Amino acid sequence: MSQSKRQARRAWAAARRKHIKRGHVYHVQFHHDPACAIYSQERICCCNPDRILMDDRGRVLARVQGAGFYDPLELVEGAQ
Ligand SMILES: [Zn+2]
Questions:
Q1: Which helix (H) or strand (E) holds 61?
Q2: CA Rg, the chain, in Å?
Q3: What is the 1 CA–ligand 1 centroid distance (Å)?
Q4: Which pLDDT value is given to residue 77?
Q5: Distance in Å, CA 47 to ligand 1 centroid
Q6: Confidence band of 24 (pLDDT split at 50, 70, 90)
Q7: Domain ranges of the chain
Q8: How many angstroms is it from 57 CA to the middle of ligand 1?
């Protein structure tokens, strides 16, 4: 994993820790490349999606680019 990717992942984790609080409604969006394999039968991300965290009114709280493949477990770790 490249240094910048690691920094982006760290920024994404920090944004989630900062904004996601128990009992609050929020939305997380992943903007995949149209050619990403997440849209295939395998449903495994092979692109570098933008990650966007929004509150319940649709306001963007954080946007992180360049954090690498989407991993379904990344929303479990660090989110409380
Ligand atoms: Zn993808």
A1: strand 60-64
A2: 13
A3: 16
A4: 57
A5: 4
A6: confident
A7: 3-75
A8: 25
Question: Cα dist. 60→7, 17, 18, 29 in Å?
Answer: 20, 15, 13, 10
Position 21 scores a pLDDT of 81
First-last CA distance in the chain: 26
Write the pLDDT tens digit of every residue in 46-70.
999 999 999 999 999 999 999 999 9
Return all residues near 61 (Cβ < 8 A) that are at least 6 apart: 15, 19, 26, 53, 54, 55
- Dist CA 66 CA 64 (whole Å): 7
Expressed in angstroms and rounded, the spacing between residue 68 Cα and the centre of ligand 1 is 9
- 63/11 Cα distance (integer angstroms): 9
CA distance 26 to 57: 9
